[in-house]
Design brief:
single chain; 294 residues; alpha+beta; Phosphorylase Kinase, domain 1; 5-stranded antiparallel sheet; 7 helices; globular; binds adenosine-5'-triphosphate; binds magnesium ion
Length: 294
């Protein structure tokens, strides 16, 4: 199926949230996370979707949940529409392949970020202070350089429209409690290291990523999307050169094109041409195939 799904319509099912990419529903006390084909760039949702994107992101999350099965319990109940509540069956065309029925957890209100390389907001903070989230780093690091060891750099979860704020471990401990903060830090770094080592063997660097954990029946479980291009920086190992800003695997084509348009980065965005849409879809496919290849 090559249709693009920009928004889900599930009459009778309660939609509780709409993110930039996903539509979230609540059903029988559980969560239904549906990844649409929406694409955002510079925090603005594009008017055209990317064919196959929602399904690819969901399949990648499912892949990582399985990959981490021996490391941590997760929120997945099923990704098979036929095993979901019967009221969802009429919507199988919208849902199959791109949705996950999940246990509803109490999400810890911090973003659990691991960084193995210095990029994005980490690079910005390092340039200003020489530290990231209160952790002093060696002097003279270049942009995108590999860190001597990966670091845990938590952030607050900002309300819609605002940017997350990087915080140090002490503030994370004040928010979620010291024992939980230590547990989340250790899990974040362990999962990141395992995933990055695996990705490296496929020619991909995971520069950084964000996990979300929650409490479910008293246990810490892995929630949300996992190690997708939307929650991580994926770089092509073959083209990696510290000192430059590496192209991100997914959105670079769109960003480059948008930069050439007369546009002030507020809605409405210019409409992406076919060529840009198709090349972006191909890039998503490429990274996902590299990672999932047996
Ligand atoms: N198992 C779960 N239990 C409870 N909440 C969950 C679970 N998994 C994910 N969530 C929450 O569901 C929401 C998913 O929202 P989503 O990521 O689509 O949008 P967003 O974070 O608001 O915006 P963005 O598009 O920038 O990511 C998040 O608030 C996440 O914490
Ligand atoms: Mg999110």
């Amino acid at each position: 199926m090559n249709d693009v799904l920009l928004e889900t319509h599930l009459p009778g099912i309660r939609r509780i949230h709409q993110g930039k990419v996903r539509d979230i529903y609540e059903i029988e006390g559980k969560l239904l996370l549906v990844a649409t084909d929406r694409l955002s760039a510079f925090d603005v949702i594009m008017s055209r979707g990317i064919p196959g994107k929602g399904e690819m992101l969901t399949q990648l999350t499912l892949f990582w949940l399985r990959f981490f099965e021996s490391d941590i319990e997760n929120h997945l109940i099923t990704a098979d529409v036929e095993r979901m509540p019967a009221v969802l069956h009429p919507f199988r065309r919208q849902l199959q392949g791109r949705s996950m029925l999940c246990r509803k957890a109490s999400i810890f209100p911090i973003e659990c970020v691991a960084r193995g390389y210095i990029a994005g907001s980490g690079w910005k903070e390092y340039r200003q202070t020489g530290a990231v989230c209160g952790q002093l780093l060696p002097a003279g690091l270049r942009q995108a350089e590999k860190l001597p060891q990966a670091i845990f750099t938590p952030a607050t979860k900002a309300p819609k429209g605002q940017h997350d704020e990087n915080i140090d471990f002490e503030r994370a401990a004040a928010i979620v409690g010291r024992d939980h903060a230590a547990r989340l830090r250790d899990l974040t770094l362990r999962l990141y290291a395992k995933a990055n080592a695996y990705a490296n063997s496929r020619g991909i660097i995971i520069a950084d990523t964000k996990f979300e954990f929650g409490l479910y029946e008293g246990r810490v479980i892995l929630c949300d999307e996992v190690l997708t291009p939307d929650s991580s920086r994926f770089w092509d190992s073959a083209r990696y050169r510290p000192g430059t800003s590496p192209e991100s695997y997914d959105k670079q084509i769109v960003r480059d094109w948008l930069e050439q348009q007369p546009w002030n980065k507020t809605p409405p965005p210019p409409e992406l041409p076919d060529d840009i849409v198709n090349r972006t879809a191909a890039r998503y496919r490429e990274v996902i195939e590299l990672l999932r290849k047996p």
